[in-house]
Amino acid sequence: MMQHHRQRHQQQQQQRRPVPVEEEDDAAAEEEELRLKEKEMKKRERNTRHQQIKRKKKKLRKDIASNLLLTVPDFESPEGEETPNAGRSGESGGDCSGREGRGKREDGNNGPGAKGGGYRDASGSKLGKSKRGKEARKGKESAGAKRNAPDAGRSKPSPRLGSEAKDSTRPKSKEETRPNGKKPNLLEKMRNRLQGSQFRWLNEKLYTCSGREAFEMMQKDDKMFDNYHLGFQTQTEHWPVRPVDVAIKFIQNRARQQHKKQGGEPLRVADFGCGDAEVSLHFSKSSSSAAVVECHSFDLVSKNPRVVACNMAKVPLESGCCDIAIFCLALMGNDYPLFLREAERCLKANGTLWIAEVRSRYSKVKGGDTRNSDFVKRICSDLNFKLLKHDNSNKMFVTYVFEKHGQGKGKANEAGKSSSPQDLVASWPKLSSCVYKKR
Ligand SMILES: C[S@@+](CC[C@H](N)C(=O)[O-])C[C@H]1O[C@@H](n2cnc3c(N)ncnc32)[C@H](O)[C@@H]1O
């Protein structure tokens, strides 16, 4: 019993004995070491995750590049022309953006990479980086407000084409929608971005090269054509009114008039630079309109049997066979006067030339997009047309309706007919490229 007591006493003594200081230090050190190790492990984990994501992104970029990137041929800008700002040119908003963009340059060539670059405010002075951001935001807000305002911009509100009015009913752009309603994933976003920059590059090329060069380029790689049109559609789907719809309406009215006057005689239309041949498709849909409109469509590439692939400076049509020649945003080459001369050849006497172009394209033309501009004067004086109608009430584009003079077939007057193609092109005003907004 006594022994048991003693043992318990000893045990209690031992428990009460204070822990030596060194032991306490060791424990704290051990704990600290453990904490550091844990921290280190977490850091390493984070780094590996970061690396993994980085590698994944890199791989995605590679995949996209190998699947999508078009082979872009070397392309020299024509002599005397400003070198186009390919790839950068579309970064700031232009007139054809469908929205008011960021600072707009006076020369119509927008974008920070352009000569004498930098964004500008409305007064034309350069904007600093932070101011640029503010201005851009302000621009977006005011653009939204202006779009909704009844007297937006300097022109009247854009006329709407009944069911074709685009604002509320327009399909959402590919960035905004996916079939499952989810936001686009990284791959899709990158694909869209790449596609957008290829579109802007192609767009600039088509405005700065000749029709022949454009034809050769597109024929080499027709993926370019698809890419161009995907980008073009993405842009125009934001427009309140698309010029191609205006063209269709114009043809429809004329077809009705002709039908009344001439009975069964079809209205023969040539659509120069038809793109997806929307005009032809429209009139082939209803059998009654197909009976009165016969549409010949021309473009650089033929993606459907309605379209004849050619450079529209020379189309396979007889002289004097058409009632209407349409150029819907199609005066793209730097030798565009040759396209108009070809249209004049194809038109009947008193035939109609219908042109729609983005307004900013006339920024360097004397007289701009008015009815007395150098552009109009040249068409009338060199190609024997008279201006019937001019409409610049739309904020985005201007339309012209000309009538061919005289009785002859393909009778451009002396200046137009006898001058060499080079002389004709050199003597006409240059139209600026249409710069699209990055979307
Ligand atoms: C801006 S798109 C307009 C397409 C269509 N007219 C529309 O409004 O939807 C211009 C079209 O002109 C075509 N184009 C440009 N230069 C051409 C040329 N030299 N010969 C034939 N087509 C040309 C382009 O390929 C493109 O399809």
Radius of gyration: 33 Å
Strand-residue proportion: 5-15%
Largest sheet: 7 strands, mixed
CATH topology of one domain: Rossmann fold
Number of helices, where a helix is a run of at least 4 consecutive DSSP H or I residues: 13
Oligomerization category of the chains in this entry: single chain
Uncertain spans: 69-95, 98-176
Along the chain, the helix and strand elements come as: HHHHHHHEHHEEEHEHEEHH
What is the overall shape?
Answer: elongated
Number of DSSP strands? 7
Q: What is the CATH C level class of one domain, in words?
A: Alpha Beta
Strand arrangement in the largest pleated sheet: 3-2-1-4-5-7-6
End-to-end gap: 94 Å
Overall residue-averaged pLDDT value: 74
What is the assigned CATH homologous superfamily of one domain? Vaccinia Virus protein VP39
Keywords: Methyltransferase, Nucleus, rRNA processing, S-adenosyl-L-methionine, Transferase
Pfam family, one: Methyltransf_8
Protein name: Ribosomal RNA-processing protein 8
EC number: 2.1.1.-
